[in-house]
Amino acid sequence: MRPSPLKLNSLRFLHVSVYPRNEPETLDPVENPAPIDTWGANIHCSLTHAEADKLEGGEVRDYMVALGIQVSDGPEKEVPYKIDVECVGYFSIPNGFPDAAERLEIAVVNGASLLYGAIREQIATVTSRCWYGELRLPSLNFREDGPAARAAAEAKRRAAEEKSGATQPSADPE
């Protein structure tokens, strides 16, 4: 294990929405419910990032990563809350890390992981005081969402298109 070169400078929530699926019957006493497992629920992530402008003659060392999470029912899993959360983090990587592509990869993948941890904790905290009990989001892996993985997937998709286009006869417009 080694420490990450990524430094979290600031993290802010843009919005946190947690609504019960059904209005609870508040006259019935509530027991301490077990934590709600989200295995099988649909968890939609929206991940965006940006690089700060380079200083004259310098390299990009500052990054912004934004992560949104929406939780909804899955094919076989009903979730008692409607959840929509978005937060943004501002990160930096100190000098001494020379490769720009690797810096961006670390900023996006590790940054998204840090933000998701904050979102998981926020949802657990808010729902622990809600009627239906604490909702626990599963762990997620953001490696496939990094710039290198997306570029590799796009290159693979293009190669498959070229291959399938080369083997199919072209349609004659006449």
Question: Any descriptors?
Answer:
SecB-like_sf; 29% strand; globular; Bacterial Protein-export protein SecB; alpha+beta; two-stranded parallel ribbon; Protein-export protein SecB; plasmid
Overview in brief:
It comes from Cupriavidus neocaledonicus. This protein is α+β, with helices and mostly antiparallel strands.
Which helices and strands, and how do they pair?
Layout: E1 7-20, E2 36-37, E3 42-51, E4 62-72, E5 81-92, H1 100-128, E6 135-136, H2 147-167
Parallel strand pairs: 2-6
Antiparallel strand pairs: 1-5, 3-4, 4-5
Low-confidence residue ranges: none
Which descriptor suits the 3D outline?
globular
Count of DSSP helices?
2
Helix proportion range: 25-40%
Number of structural units classed as domains: 1
- Main sheet: strands, sense, barrel: 4 strands, antiparallel
How far do the termini sit from each other?
Answer: 64 Å
User: Could you give me the name of the CATH homologous superfamily?
Assistant: SecB-like
Oligomer: single chain
Q: What is the average per-residue confidence, as pLDDT, rounded to a whole number?
A: 86
Based on secondary structure, the structural category is: alpha+beta
Return Rg in Å. Answer: 22 Å
| CATH architectural label | Roll
Please report the first level of CATH classification, the CATH class. Answer: Alpha Beta
- CATH topology: the name is Bacterial Protein-export protein SecB
Number of strands: 6
Give helix and strand order, one letter per element, not per position: EEEEEHEH
The spatial strand order of the largest sheet comes to 1-5-4-3
Strand portion: 25-35%
